[in-house]
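I can't quite decide. Please look over this sequence plus structure tokens:

:::
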Amino acid sequence: MTVEITSHEELRELLGAPMPRSVAKERTVLHARDRQWLAASPFCLVATAGADGSCDVSPKGDPPGFTLVLDETTIAIPERPGNRRADGYRNILDNPHVGLIYLIPGRTDTLRINGRARLVREAPFFDDMVVKGHRPVLAVVVEVEQVFYHCAKAFLRSELWQPETWHPDVLPSRPRLIKEVEAPAESLADLERHYGPDYARRIYS
């Protein structure tokens, strides 16, 4: 029998009250340590939701420090060449609320930032976001409303950073997955060439 949770009260009764420290840790202004974290992080996840409630989570990655701190309550994330779906960006135009999780490889805690975002197509700080000659075509500017550090339990349970748990070959290669799942017109050989050694050299072009 499946039993659903249908109310906030039922959820709280099941999980219990949060520890006082986990509630008190929320801040609205970036601490100096938050700035250091952002300067060291090469990767974040950006969660958005559309006007209809549909959700999207998009990974963003660049050299460490790719997220620019504009002031104690504002950060900017550059856009790099991608698949042009723009799912998250379209969501931001309809609903500015975003959730960000910043990772540092090897660390089991994360930095979480929630706030309101807007899309900027030009600003003087774009000059500070150039990577390998690529100037971003737009940036997501986030007004920080909530910032805090998240504990290590998920990473410890998953053993995410333990190399002995890594099994990248458990599934077929990216080209084979595309051919099998998405059934594109390109041949497998064409896909393998596209995602071959030159792929990493083209990520900023």
In short: The chain has a mean pLDDT of 96. Residues 32-40 form the longest helix (9 residues). Helices lie at 8-15, 20-24, 32-40, 87-94, 153-158, 174-182, 188-194. The first strand starts at residue 43 and ends at 49.
